[in-house]
Specification:
Order of helices and strands of chain A: EEEHEEEHEHHHHEHEHEEHHHEE
Strand content of chain A: 15-25%
Number of strands of chain B: 0
Oligomer: heterodimer
Largest interface: A-B, 36 and 27 residues
Shape of chain A: globular
Helix content of chain A: 25-40%
Helix content of chain B: over 70%
Order of helices and strands of chain B: HHHHHHHHHHHHH
Number of strands of chain A: 13
Distance between the termini of chain B: 23 Å
Structural class of chain A: alpha/beta
Strand order of the largest sheet of chain A: 7-8-9-3-10-11-13-12
Number of helices of chain B: 13
Largest sheet of chain B: none
Strand content of chain B: under 5%
Distance between the termini of chain A: 32 Å
Shape of chain B: flat
Radius of gyration of chain A: 20 Å
Number of helices of chain A: 11
């Protein structure tokens, strides 16, 4: 985990746009971030901020066309994902980097059993017998704290609850001991009572497996519980990047401050939450300058005209705002 | 599953009885009778004798019960238009060309259509897709008798590769089978394309990609299997349509199949033959849907394993 080690994920100046009938939708507009081995990073932002798309881009899961990807660097475990061929990419997926998704109810193929789908994942990357793979699959289900693992292996997705399926999904993601796990809003579709259990499980397994984690979420509460470092995204850009404690204690960017104000359960016990006025920027026609300036309480003429660069504001902290002083 | 099949068989029995009544009533509701003989009317005495011989002078419900009593023993009566054989013998004779024509047409057209649909779905919005869609749309919109005419014109008249009509030797089969195959091919190309695109857009396909499965494996092991579920429901009923033969294709190529009898039996009020043809269709459709449902359940675990375990 030393600073000199090759980062697990390294993204520099990533842009992703989608060609549509009526022009170009710019989902990601120059994102730079990295994750070191064993580190956990939270990517926070509202819908349409480009957080999921950035992760999908790393695994090259965006179909192009319509997606257009550019980056000065897009590396996964040292492999240049912009240059890698199809075979290399499929070899990386699931083995080096695994991904879990928002809605576990639609994430499994409905016509095959859970066991079939986990065993398939194991056998596509590793040369093991069906029998051995099945034993491993059962062991994995037990590790994600599924009790009657043998029975669940033979169940079809529609027979299980959302929480159970998300556990199975995590088990499947871990089946090849990936170096990094991308968790794309893994608890959004689940009952509140189950959410905390799943987050706890992901955190425990991350430490147990010593793997990196990227937790994509719109919920600051989720990152507070699970990650070391946070990247705040807005309008396809990185607004702020800081250790998780600093984000909560001393947010630098006006957008981060606004997000915290909109979060329920703050210590000062306000009766009413502060909403952020206005709406997210239209990705087909993003605002000039800082994407947040139309909604920002402290914006001035410079914010509307020029894009603020992401600059260091303290040790290990960066923010993109003209009004930082 | 056994219980399901038994229940379905019972409901097929009920359907059969209701349909037979409706057909019988509608058949007799058409004015005129088999011995009215348009241009050459028979003497009334002769006509009365014939009506009595075939039991047509009895009340309708008696005629119905007598006919159905025969049906139970697989006796469908004597066709009025060719009294030298039984209805069953006539069907057996005329069915063979229809079955060969329709069966081969479907067996050739279906895989071609499926391949076309897969190609279109995988290369969507490219020339492959446009070409496949054009072929499918033309196949569905151009009436089969026009297709037949074009085939005869090009391959029989101009190129002189195949005979233009008849059924005696296999070289005469080629053109009608091609003409017939365009229908299942076009239907299947469209169904396959939309079913495939529907499945490809499902979130689980992204998960399969993220797991590191190759695109080929995703298509052949997951997407096709999921897409087959809605397609199964179309296949068997379409197959039945062919067992009766295409009336138009048979007429265009003068194939001595069943198709012609559907029309002629109604025109000549050939009650026994008409009844037999309709009942045969009813049974085949019922069985086709039953088999489709069984296949559907077999392909789709959500049907087989009803409830949630957890």
């Amino acid at each position: 985990m030393s600073a000199s080690a090759t980062p697990l994920v390294e993204i520099r100046e990533l842009t992703v746009s989608f060609a549509q009938h009526d022009g170009l939708v710019q989902a990601v507009r120059g994102v730079t971030l990295h994750v070191d081995p064993g580190e956990s990073l939270g990517i926070v932002g509202e819908s349409g901020s480009g957080k999921s798309v950035s992760c999908m881009a790393v695994l090259r899961l965006l179909r192009s066309p319509p997606a257009r990807i550019t980056a000065t660097k897009l590396a996964l475990a040292g492999v240049d994902m912009m240059q890698a061929d199809k075979k290399q990419i499929t070899g990386m997926r699931g083995r080096v980097a695994a991904m879990i998704f928002q809605d576990p109810m639609t994430a499994f193929d409905p016509v095959f059993t859970i066991g079939h789908q986990i065993i398939e994942t194991i056998r596509v990357h590793r040369n093991v017998s069906k029998k051995a793979a099945r034993a491993e699959a059962q062991d994995l289900l037990e590790r994600v704290k599924i009790r009657n693992a043998a029975a669940i292996l033979d169940s079809y997705p529609h027979q299980l609850s959302g929480g159970m399926l998300q556990r199975a999904m995590i088990a499947m993601a871990l089946s090849c001991q990936p170096q990094i796990l991308f968790a794309d809003e893994p608890t959004t579709a689940l009952d509140v009572t189950v959410q905390a259990q799943i987050l706890q499980l992901i955190k425990e397994l991350q430490q147990e497996f010593g793997m990196g984690l990227i937790m994509v979420t719109h919920d600051l509460g989720v990152v507070a519980e699970t990650v070391d470092r946070v990247v705040v995204m807005y309008g396809g850009k990185v607004m702020e990047q800081a250790p998780v404690q600093d984000i909560f204690d001393s947010p630098a960017h006006p957008y981060t401050k606004a997000l915290l104000g909109a979060m329920p359960g703050q210590a000062d016990g306000r009766a009413r939450l502060t909403e952020i006025p206005g709406a997210s920027p239209n990705p087909a026609a993003p605002p000039t300058g800082c994407p947040f300036h139309p909604r920002c309480p402290v914006a001035d003429a410079q914010c509307a005209a020029e894009v603020p660069p992401l600059i260091s504001v303290a040790d290990g902290r960066q923010a993109a705002c003209w009004r930082l002083t | 599953m056994i219980g399901f099949i038994l229940r379905r068989l019972m409901s097929i029995g009920v359907t059969f009885i209701i349909v037979s009544m409706i057909i019988f009533l509608m058949m007799h509701a058409i004015p005129g009778g088999p011995f009215d003989g348009g241009d050459m009317p028979m003497p009334p005495a002769v006509r009365a004798t014939l009506m009595e011989r075939y039991g047509l002078d009895q009340p309708l419900y008696m005629q119905y019960f007598k006919y159905m009593a025969g049906v139970v023993r697989l006796d469908f009566g004597i066709p009025f238009q060719s009294p030298g054989e039984t209805v069953l013998e006539l069907l057996g004779r005329a069915w063979v060309p229809s079955l060969v024509l329709g069966g081969l047409g479907v067996l050739i057209g279906t895989p071609l259509g499926i391949l076309l649909g897969i190609a279109a779905a995988l290369r969507r919005n490219t020339w492959v897709d446009y070409l496949a869609s054009a072929v499918a749309t033309l196949g569905l919109t151009i009436p089969v008798f026009v297709t037949s005419m074009l085939l005869i014109l090009v391959f029989a008249v101009w190129l002189n590769w195949f005979p233009s009509s008849g059924w005696g030797s296999p070289d005469r089969w080629v053109l009608p089978i091609i003409a017939y195959a365009t229908i299942p091919m076009a239907t299947y190309a469209r169904y396959t394309r939309s079913a495939m695109l529907d499945t490809l857009n499902k979130p689980f396909v992204t998960v399969l990609r993220a797991k590191g499965l190759s695109e080929t494996r995703i298509i052949y092991q997951h997407v096709l299997r999921n897409s087959a579920i809605p397609m199964v429901t179309v296949f068997l009923p379409m197959f039945i349509g062919t067992a009766t033969g295409s009336i138009f294709v048979e007429a265009m190529f003068r194939v001595p199949g069943l198709g012609a009898y559907f029309v002629s039996s109604i025109r000549t009020r050939d009650y026994p033959l008409e009844m037999a043809l309709m009942l045969m269709l009813t049974v085949m459709f019922c069985l086709a849907y039953l088999i489709s449902d069984i296949l559907y359940a077999w392909l789709n675990p959500r049907m087989k394993h009803g409830g949630r375990k957890q």
